[in-house]
User: Fold these one by one.
Assistant:
Number 1:
Amino acid sequence: PNLHEAHRLFANAINAEFMPAYTKEFNGFRRFIEAFKRAKELPDYDVYLLEGGMPLFPAYLKKRKNKNIKVIGLLADETFINLVERQPHYSFAETLIHRISARCLDGAISVSPMVKEYAEKVIDVPIEIARPPISKENFVKLGKVKPDLESNIIISVGQPRYSIGMDILVEQFKHAKKEFPELELWIVGKGHPKEYESVNGVRVLGYVEELSEVFEKASLFVHAGRCSAYPVATLEAMRAGLPVVVSTMTGTKEIVKKVENEVKEELGLKYEGSKFIKPLDKIVDGMIAYYSSDERGRMLLSEKYRRESEEFEPEKRAKHFKEVFEELLEGIR
C-alpha cells in the first residue's frame, strides 16, 4: 500500500497487517461503487485502523455487517477539515459519503491538535493525539546540518497538492521580494510547474535526493498550507535548525508558537500574537518579520527548533503511538 512512511511506522508499532483501501484507482462516484466490492473482501479482524478518508466507506459497509468490530481512524489528512470547512478539491459526493461513513469510527488518533479540533465537530468518539516522526535516515542526517542563517534563501518542500499551498507561497513571495530584493525561494518536490520560475527569484528544484544539501544553504523554511494536518517537511526543517514560518492552517503551528514564545521571553520582546504563524494572505508578513530580525534572534530560533525536533525521533514516536493506540482500544472495548 502507498502509505506515508510515518504512518507505516505507526502500523508496524502495533504489528498491523496492511491492506489498500482500493485495488484500483477510481475517481468520483466510481470509487464508492468499488467500495462495496472492497468491503466484501476485507478480512474479519477485530480491529481496523484506517489511514485518512479513503478507507472510511469500505469500513462503514463492513461494520454494518459486523457490529462487533472496532474501527479506529488515523486522522492524518484534511478529510475532517473538509467536513467542517468545504475544500474545493473534494467533490460533493465524496464529502457526503465521508460524513456518513465517519459514523463507523469508535475512536480516533489525530496527528495534531488542529485536526482533532475539526474532527470533534463531526464525530463524538474518543480522540487521542500521536504526532508523526521524522524518518530515521533524515533524523540523523538533518541533525548534523548547519543552516546559513545569514543567507537570503527560503526553502519550501512538498507535493504539488492543493492542501500544500505552494501556489500561494509563490504569490506571497513576490511581495517579500519587494521588501528584500535579494531573496530567493527554492521549491523542492516532484511535479511543481516550472512556470513558477517566471517569478523573479523562484527556483523549482524538483526532487532532491539529499535534503541536507539544500537546507544547509537556507535561512528560512516556509509552509503555506491551506489545510496541512502535520507536514513532516516542517519537522525536517526544524531538525536541520531552520526557523519556520507556517500558515494558521498548518498543524505544526503548535511548535512554532511554543518556540516563538520562548524566544520572545528570552529576548524581552513585547508584541501581541505571532510573527511566524500567519493567515494565507499574510504569509509574506512572516517572511518579512524573519528577515527583519537580528542575528541573535535567528540563532535562538534555530537552536530551539533543533531541540524541539528531538521529540520526533522515530522510535520515540512509535512507542508513543503504540501506548496511545492500546489505551484508546482498551477504553472503547
Note: The chain is about 45% helix and 15% strand.
Number 2:
Amino acid sequence: EGTLVPSVGVSSTSLGTKTDNGEIADLEVIEEGAGIYKATFEAGSRSGQVAIQAQINGTTSKSKPISIEILPGKLKSLVIKGQDAEKPKPISLRAGQAKLFTVFGQDQYQNPSTQTGLPAQALVDSSTLNSQLVTTESIFQWEISGGIGEVTLGQSSDQSGGEHYRFVAQRVGEGNIGWFALIDGERIERKTGKITVTSGQIDKVLVTIVESPEHTQLVPIGETRTLEVIAEDAFGNPIFLDKEQVSEWTVSNDIGVLDTDSSPTSQPLAIFTPGRIGSGRISVTIGEMKGVSELILVVTGPPQSIQIQAVDPARQQQDPIELTAGNQIK
C-alpha cells in the first residue's frame, strides 16, 4: 500500500495563516524525500505562542510539539489607556491631586509592542519655558506642556507591555502630557487631552500691607495702611478669598485699630489706623488657618504745630517777657 502522509496542525489556529475563505486549515505538507515531509507555517497578524504537531493520518501516532513564539513587530503607535486617540477627553484636577496613566505601544497589527530599538536621547529645549521634557529609564519619554505638574514612573509594567505613570497636578494652568519614543529617527507620540489645573486647598494665609512691601513696616501716627489677605495652596498657587471667610481680625499690643467694613469689594481688606507708638502684628483667622503680618512699627508722625516758651516757669506767664538790658533769657 502507499506511504501514510502526516498532517501538521496548529494549536492556536487564530495565530496561523488563514485560507482564502477565512477558515483555518492544517498546514500544507510536501514530501521532500523518503519519510521526510515539509510544512510551512506563516504567522498571522497576532502575537502569541503556538504549538505545531504532526500526526500520521489514520493513526494515533503524534510527534512531539514544537513551540513557536510570534513576537510583535516594531512599535508603530502609542496608546494611552482610557484616552481616545482622535478626541482625547479633557481632564480637570486641583493642585495636589494625582491621576494614573497607563501607556503602551502597538505594532502595525495592534499587538502590544515594546520594540523601541535604542533608547531615545532627547535634549531639554531651554527656550521653551512652559514645556518640561523628561529623559528616564522608561520605555517611553514624556513631555509636560504648561508646567502644570510632575510625572513619575510606576514600579511595574502590565501584561500588555504598558507602563504606569503617576501625574501630580501642581501649578494652576492648562497643558497636556505627551509620551513618545524615537524609532529609526521617527517620533512616535501620543498626547492626553487638555489638562486643566485649578488651585488646591488652603495651605498658607498671608497678611501684607498694600502700600509698602518691606518686611518691617513703619507706620507714622496720623497715617493709615491698607492690609490684604492672600491665601496659597501647598504649591504656591493663589486662592481667591471672600471677606466672609475671615472669621476674626486682631491687632497685638494695642498699637491701633482696624476698619474691616469700608472695603467696596468682596476681597478681605482692612484699614489700619495707628493709635500709639510701639510694635505689633495683625492677624486673621480663616477656618482653622491663621495668618500673621510682619512686624509693624508705629512711629511718631510729622510735626503738626510748633511752640516757643521761656524755660523759667515764672517768665512763661509774662506777656511780653520783661528782660533787663544786658541780661539773657533761656
Note: Residues 171 and 236 are 8 Å apart (CA to CA).
Number 3:
Amino acid sequence: VSQSRYSGFLSKQSASGAGWAYTYDIAGSPSPGLGFRNGVAVSSAGDVYVSSQINISSANRLVIQKINSSGTVQYAKRVDVNSAAVAYSTGVKLAGSYLSFSGYYSNKIFAALTDLDVTVSFCKEVSTSLNADRTARGADTACDSGGNTYLVYPVSSGGSGTVSALRVVKFNSSGTVQWNKEYNVPTGDRYTSAALAGGYLWVVTTVYSTGTTYVLKILGTDGTVNLSRSISHPTSTDGLSNAISVTNASVQISLEPLFLTLRLSVTGVGTGSYTVGGTSVTYSTASITDSTVSDTFSTVSTTVTSETTSNSSVTTLSATSLTVAVTQV
C-alpha cells in the first residue's frame, strides 16, 4: 500500500507478480486530498483493510476501507474521535474479528478497537505534550484475537516536547487497562511499529538522528522486557519508516529509506556486524528495562461515517520477473 498527497495505491500480487492494483481518492477530498500515514491488514478470507489519513472538507480524517480479494471496495468509513478531525493516524492491525488503530488529535493520543465493520468496541485517549508529528511517528497498536489491545506511544520528560521514553499500555477488549509500562529507550525521534506473536509484543523503534533502531520483545501478560536489541546503521536526515512482522520462529524488520530487511531470531542470537548491500549494520544486545507507570486513560466518543471512493480503478497486473539482490547474514 502506498499513498501520496493526491491518491492512494494498493496492489495484491502472487509470488509470480500477477494480481491487481487499486488506485483511489475519497469523494469530497480537495486537491491535495490524501496525506499520510497509512497501513494495510489482510484477513484469512483475503479481504484487505486499509487505513488512510485523508483531507476531507479541509481537515485530516481517518478512513478505513475494506477491499475484497478481487479489488472491489466493500466500504470506506471515516472515524472521527470526540467530533474532531484526526491530525495524524497510524496503520491498522487485524486479529480474528478485531481491528485496532491509533492516532493523534488536540494534544491527545488515542487507541481504538473495532470489529471488521468498524463498529467501535472502545476508544481511549491520553494527554501528551508532544506535537502531532512526533506522536504519529512514535505510536502504534497491536491486537490479538481476544480483543486485547496494545498501544505503544512516546512520552516527553517534563513536558519538554522531546521524546524521552516509550510507553505501552495493554487494554482488554472492554478498554480496561491491564498494565502500563515505560521503557528507557534513548531520547530521539521515533518511527515505531508493533506486532504480536506467541504471547509477546514486539516493538521496533528508530532514533534516526543517531542511526540506531531498537527491538523489544515484551511479555504480553505483564509487560516485562524479555529481550532487547539495538541495530546500528547509517543515519538519515529524511527519517525512517519501520515495519515489523513476526512468526513464532523469526522477526522481520524493514528499515526505510535504507531498503534493508532484516530477519532475526526470536531468541536474539546472531549478534554481530554485517554488510548488507554495501551498508554496515551492527546487531547488539541493548539494556532496555521496564518500569510501571500509571497514565490516565479516558473514554472518548467516536463517530463512524460512510464515505464514497472516487476516481478509483483496478488494473490487472501481469506476472513479471525482476532481479533482486539478497544478502543472507
Note: The first helix runs from residue 132 to 138.
